[in-house]
Amino acid sequence: MEKGNEPLLEVSHLQTGFRIKDDYYNAVDDVSFSLEKNEILAIVGESGCGKSTLATTIMGLHDENKTKVAGEILYNGLNLTTFNETLYNKVRGNDIGMIFQDPLSALNPLMRIDEQIKESLSYHTNMNAQQKQERAIQLLTQVGIPNPERVARQYPHELSGGMRQRVIIAIAIACKPPILIADEPTTALDVTIQAQILDLLKDLQAETGSGIILITHDLGVVAEMADRVAVMYAGQFVEVATDAELFENPKHPYTRSLLQSIPQENSDSTALHVIEGVVPSLSKLPRQGCRFAPRIPWIPIDEHEENPSLHEIAPEHYVRCTCYQHFHFRDGKEEA
Amino acid sequence: MTKIIQIKDLKVHYPIRSGFFNRVTDHVLAVDGVDFTIEQGKTYGLVGESGSGKSTTGKAIIGLEKITSGQIIYQGKDVTKASSRKAIKYNKDVQMIFQDSMSSLNPKKRVLDIIAEPIRNFERLSDQEEKQKVKGLLDIVGMPEDALYKYPHEFSGGQRQRLGVARAVATNPKLIIADEPVSALDLSVQAQVLNFMKNIQQEYGLSYLFISHDLGVVKHMCDNIAVMYKGRFVEIGTRNDIYNDPRHIYTKRLLSAIPKIDVANREGHKAHRRIVEQEYREHYHKFYDETGRVYDLRTITETHQVALKKGDAE
User: Domains in chain B, please, with CATH?
Assistant: First the structure.
């Protein structure tokens, strides 16, 4: 697929801190990336590593009184972090669309489907009632809902999980936003429905040329969908690479450990790889040094950097901290 | 191999009530005629999409769902009726691990009481002995001793799921029904719990009925696999039969939908998936009867059975 080279979105040194007892703890820490037209950037990581916080920060969904956002989110030359609520309302839905994880709680149970789609149309466009209705039906057709006229008059509880997720996608693309953020769009769905929804996202992208940020914990989905991948751990990107490069040539210890713990790949061996320890909670994050170090204690501490930064080790392949150069699994076994 | 449990033509139907007098007008056929056998020390996998009746099957076996018809034969004895279970310690020998660890552990009880509860039901132990036993169980699942006096909310999801495993093995059961034990967990934690389950199995010769929608996990854990659709089995076989030689179109479709980590062949997978999807739509009627019901199973090889129309068994 041809890539447009102009970045749609440029995020640099983004920090999102949550206030806990008069102190701020960074759930997202020093994240920088750019998103191009026609590109799918996948962000992977385990729960609690800050994936969704990153998404909600870009959408400006945090309460100013309890969070502190620093850094820049550049869109069309404007820094979104400086926007107030009124300005942000013009961006949400119109310029950046978001697809939420849980389709039932993201839809209003008391509103009919077409009303929910038309809501953002009324906000961002000057369409009259009839145009809006036509657009709503057209969107439902576009996301592959059979019998859209009937579904438009139904309520969310009357639809299946896959259908609801299609409606969420229809709402997200209603105003043709150039940027889509999909936060675990298929986690709640069965594999066959998941395949359909992922195909749908790809088809929509081919039509509109939008840039998609795909947040997921499923490495299989990443391998099938992404152009570039960012692996996130404890609020930071630890490895950024193209899809092919990441799976063929993973460098960071966390990426390599994750790939080893997928059951499908090791179906014949008896034991799966287990990463020692747990993802540190926000208040216990080490403020200095490599954040993955406590989980690979057999690697000597002087192999880590004091203030780990992203190193470009190959074209478009970035790895945080130098510990990857010395990393080996505890029992010395090599990857399959 | 000794058969530990045999399920014969199990049916669970839920009545649909409607109309003025709230009379039974129809039935939901949640489980509609399921036969299988679990051997000792083996893991039996049950896969299918949500709503296919996997969990209902598991719950019916352990006695959490009322059975409409069919038989459960445990070690040669009929235990379909709840009253026949006590004499042969069925309720002690068959235990369950639940999907959602938060809602299956009582938030008001300490870990000691949670894990000791099944022991108290079946054995008479002094406080000291009981504590020793629970400590031993915590040790098996790799939890520290000081967990004894903590409450469920103080643990992470993976730790809670391990507590669920410890509770399930407390009575030295012979069969554990694991209903989506890892689907709420992260990859690395999932690996931990699966490893524990495998270790415990090797140590105690347990059998598992492993219910999951994740085909990767099932492939890793199970010896025999049954694929379920609309309350019926569409295909049963060994792991090799199902993954390398799927015969039913539904199994093929399910397998082709799994995302694969093979970036170089990405387009190839997608094309393959589309072909299978198309085939599924075109040949749907050949694999199901007029009412959409799955046909009865026919034997292909000794281990492999597929639900095909009469005369279609190649």
Answer: 3-307 (3.40.50.300)
